[in-house]
């Protein structure tokens, strides 16, 4: 049942009352009255119509886009004022209204225009019934939103959860009018700015009850845009590196938002969520100078570098935390260097230089981002690295056999010794000579401590694989991969596994913008430093846990060995497969294990027991608790929120533009690296008939069919 308002024209009181159908009729009524403060007698009748008068006017005037009546439309007629008003007739036969007993007199004109009150006018209350349903929101007239975007986000969320759609009837910078997509539905909302100069929006009119059919409710609606999905799913990516994939976003939208979205929309929503949490790739270049400034400010001694080209486009960056630089003095002087590709929009290569602490854990020294692993990039990175770790005979640099690295190391580091990663050499052998069965013999040769043992293994390799022996001797060189022939001191480190471990830790973060990636690096290093500091302070043994566990069994193994003292510091030890002569003062043994690893061998343990010397005094200080605690004795601090940064104007004004990227290839971008030389990734074909691996169903020779309940044959372990 609806209320119909009418009035009698002042110039002709004998004519029939005129019905107020829309805002234009109201405007005409007001214009006909010269005295704006006079009272206007209105006739009120009740008709069994389904759509309110002001709703009809809204539909009929939906094409009005000139905004000439916006002031009136923001103040619809408040029909609730007539709930307690009784209808009477005056002497002239015109309808009039009188206030009910106990209520103050009502000025219809003031109610009509909304003047004289700070509160927004109300809409007729429509209660949900069997034929209607509520949108279930907490919206109401007079509710404020900071921006129009916040209001639209709220309405989109309500629409998705309620499985209904709405369309925009009118929208500009100061007004937003929407209604249910069903033209016969009563649900609608009108909001506008509080004042033209403000960005705040207030709900002027709101009907939150739907009168449309349930058949019109749709889970795959227009309000479920990738932007809305991204904003809703963004909290799922806070504090995590990987988070939900596109299929996970689809599940989230279906279960949490009640929306069915495509895989592509889920992918775009996930990408938008990443941008909201981690910033855009372009923004990352812009804030990079300020970010580095804050790192240097909060972490004294930190070294940062940004290299740009003549057009201020990004080329390289370098980062080394002051805590790691100062702690390097307590590390063995063996540094592994390598690079791994980045998967973000602007790609690039992440370069890493890391040492290994006394407990066998990675100790990251420096990070760099360059365009690719070329000679210029490596020269720039290693030059920055040289400034923080120096160049001495004690220093050993371990890398793969990439030609650019090999050439640059010999140029930049004149005193340090370069060693090749034994694992990469092994992969080259398998790929080049197709002899994987040599690997056991090869690794025995690599790990030989004595040159005599090494020579014996090489003779066997020469007899069985003469081409491999020539390759190892002439192309690679014994001094690059052999432990006993290495001119410097590389301890027990024969591969770049410590660098590969860091790359695997960042496998998910390599998709982030540069600043977000550096944030992950800082966060992980802060955690490692804190955790290892706690472990170091809790140690009750003189050595680190890994070295203690390595040394303790040698006491039992060397127990009962025959020891003969040759002079005050030299002992001849017999036992095991090999005899040894130990010099306790110079910390050497003829087995060479003590000389290279700097950890007492079996012969040294036996000699120290006989000489009543503490075996811990013979261990290299790099393996002790003292050095371990000193290496991790400081803290790496984060830069915090960007709103809290205090950056000088000259740093903020520095321009760093994104690097130019080659034309993107069509299709899905690659996110997995190409296999390195000698690394095979054979596809595991699975038979749907017998369950075995290595062949397809159509080539299966099994006569018994499925082997359900029995383990399949040829399954790789």
Would you mind describing this structure in some detail?
This protein is an alpha+beta fold and 717 residues long. 35% of the residues lie in helices and 16% in strands. The chain has a seven-stranded mixed beta sheet, with helices on both faces. Strands 7-11-10-9-8 form a five-stranded antiparallel beta sheet. A hairpin with a 7-residue loop joins strand 15 (334-341) and strand 16. The radius of gyration is 40 Å and the shape is elongated. It starts with a strand and ends in a 65-residue tail after the last helix. Mean pLDDT is 79; it is low at 49-124, 677-681 and 705-717.
Poorly predicted runs are 49-124, 677-681, 705-717
Radius of gyration, in angstroms, nearest whole number: 40 Å
Extended strand count = 23
What spatial order of strands do you see in the largest sheet? Answer: 13-14-17-16-15-18-19
Distance between the termini: 77 Å
Helix/strand structural class: alpha+beta
**Tally of individual helices:** 24
Biggest sheet record: 7 strands, mixed
**Fraction of residues in helices?**
25-40%
Mean pLDDT: 79
User: What's the overall geometry?
Assistant: elongated
Percentage of β-strand residues = 15-25%
């Amino acid at each position: 049942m609806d209320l119909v308002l009418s009035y009698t024209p002042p110039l002709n009181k004998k004519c029939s009352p005129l019905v107020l159908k829309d805002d234009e009729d109201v405007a005409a009524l007001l214009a006909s009255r010269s005295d704006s403060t006079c009272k206007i007698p209105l006739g009120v009748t009740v008709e069994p119509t389904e759509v309110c008068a002001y709703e009809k006017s809204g539909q009929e005037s939906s094409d009005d886009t000139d905004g000439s009546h916006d002031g009136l439309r923001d103040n619809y007629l408040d029909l609730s004022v007539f709930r307690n008003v009784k209808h009477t007739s005056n002497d002239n036969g015109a309808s009039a209204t009188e206030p009910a007993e106990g209520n103050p007199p009502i000025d219809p004109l003031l109610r009509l225009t909304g003047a004289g009150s700070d509160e927004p006018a109300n809409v007729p209350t429509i209660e949900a019934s069997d034929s209607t349903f509520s949108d279930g929101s907490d919206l109401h007239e007079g509710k404020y939103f900071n921006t129009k975007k916040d209001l639209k986000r709220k309405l989109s969320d309500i629409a998705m959860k309620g499985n209904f759609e709405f369309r925009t009837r009118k929208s500009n910078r100061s007004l937003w009018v929407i209604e249910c997509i069903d033209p016969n539905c009563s649900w609608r909302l009108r909001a506008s700015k509080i004042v033209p100069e403000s960005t705040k929006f207030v709900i002027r009119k709101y009907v939150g009850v739907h009168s449309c059919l349930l058949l019109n409710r749709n889970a795959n609606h227009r309000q479920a845009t990738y932007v809305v999905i991204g904003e809703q799913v963004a909290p799922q990516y806070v504090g995590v590196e990987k988070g939900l994939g596109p299929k996970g976003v689809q599940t989230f939208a279906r279960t949490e938002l009640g929306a069915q979205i495509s895989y592509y929309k889920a992918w775009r929503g996930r990408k938008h969520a990443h941008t909201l949490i981690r910033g855009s790739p372009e923004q990352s270049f812009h804030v990079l100078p300020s970010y580095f400034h804050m790192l240097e400010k909060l972490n004294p001694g930190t070294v940062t570098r940004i290299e740009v080209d003549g057009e201020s486009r990004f080329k390289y960056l370098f980062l080394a935390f002051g805590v790691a630089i100062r702690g390097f003095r307590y590390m063995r002087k063996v540094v592994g260097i390598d690079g791994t590709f980045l998967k973000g929009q602007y790609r690039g290569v992440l370069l890493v230089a890391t040492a290994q602490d006394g407990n066998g854990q990675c100790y990251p020294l420096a990070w760099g981002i360059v365009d690719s692993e070329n000679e210029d990039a490596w020269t720039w990175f290693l030059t920055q690295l040289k400034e923080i770790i120096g160049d001495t005979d004690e220093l050993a640099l371990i890398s793969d056999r990439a030609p650019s690295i090999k050439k640059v190391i010999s140029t930049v580091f004149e005193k340090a010794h370069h060693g090749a990663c034994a694992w990469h050499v092994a992969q080259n052998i398998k790929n080049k000579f197709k002899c994987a069965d040599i690997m056991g013999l090869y690794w025995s040769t690599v790990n030989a401590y004595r040159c005599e043992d090494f020579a014996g293994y090489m003779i066997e390799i020469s007899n069985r694989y003469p081409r491999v022996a020539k390759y190892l001797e002439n192309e690679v060189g014994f001094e690059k991969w052999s432990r006993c022939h290495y001119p410097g001191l590389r301890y027990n480190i024969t591969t770049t596994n410590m660098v590969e471990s860091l790359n695997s830790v960042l496998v998910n973060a390599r998709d982030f913008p540069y600043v977000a990636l550096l944030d992950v690096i800082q966060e992980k290093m802060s955690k490692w430093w804190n955790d290892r500091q706690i472990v170091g302070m809790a140690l009750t043994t003189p050595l680190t846990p890994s070295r203690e566990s390595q040394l303790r069994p040698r006491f039992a193994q060397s127990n009962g060995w025959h020891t003969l003292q040759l002079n005050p510091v030299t002992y001849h030890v017999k036992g095991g497969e090999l005899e040894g002569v130990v010099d306790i003062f110079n910390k050497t043994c003829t087995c060479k294990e003590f000389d290279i690893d700097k950890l007492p061998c079996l012969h040294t343990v036996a000699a120290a027991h006989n000489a009543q010397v503490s075996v811990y005094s013979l261990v290299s200080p790099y393996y002790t608790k003292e050095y371990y605690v000193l290496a991790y004795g400081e803290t790496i601090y984060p830069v915090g929120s960007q709103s809290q940064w205090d950056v000088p104007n000259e740093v903020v004004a520095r321009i760093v533009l994104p690097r130019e990227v080659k034309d993107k290839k069509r299709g899905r971008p690659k996110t997995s690296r190409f296999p390195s030389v000698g690394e095979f990734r054979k596809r595991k074909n699975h038979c749907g008939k017998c369950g075995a691996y290595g062949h397809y169903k159509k080539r299966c020779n099994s006569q018994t069919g499925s082997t359900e309940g029995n383990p399949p044959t040829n399954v790789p372990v």
